[in-house]
Amino acid sequence: MKIGRLTISDRASAGVYADRSGPEIEAVLREFLGNDVVFEANIVPDEVEKISAALRKFADEQKCAMIVTTGGTGITPRDVTPEATRAVLEKELPGFGEIMRAQSFAKVRTAILSRAVAGTRGACLIVNLPGKPSAVRECLEILTPAIRECLAHLRGDNPHCEK
Question: What is the rounded CA–CA span in Å between residue 11 and residue 17?
Fold first, then answer.
């Protein structure tokens, strides 16, 4: 399975600091989904068109089964990941963001400020995650069962049938 991971950060894209959240996505997803995953990675600044273009490239050209973004989901003027993601989605899956905020709120009272979204584009699942590596792990742990089922549906499999 091919997975795109997109880090959205003005500073990381400019080389001001190293991307720590993107590699954490890979580590966690390998742990939860196995080693049969191949990652395509990119880092872009907090700009709607650059984010949307990267998402379209991963989904449409590189045929990723899933794209996971990190960063840009807050409320500052430069946080535009949800807007860029919605611009490319065909079907939004609001439960992903809802459960991340609800579960994260128990640990971090400001988690409700996250605007992370998720949805599908063709046969690709796109999920926005926060920018902190620890939050990446926490959110992916919560989402993994839904991710597995969603990917099965997008492949045309019936996840409820025993093989």
Answer: 6
Q: What share of the chain is helix, strand, coil (3-state, %, to 5)?
A: 45, 20, 35
Domain boundaries, the chain: 2-155
Q: Does the structure show a pLDDT above 60 at 100?
A: yes
Q: What is the mean pLDDT of the chain?
A: 96
* CATH superfamily placement of domain 2-155: MoaB/Mog-like domain (3.40.980.10)
- Say whether pLDDT at 7 is over 90: yes
Neighbours of 154 (CB within 10 A): 15
Rounded to whole angstroms, the Cα distance separating 40 from 11 reads 20
> pTM of whole model > 0.85?
yes
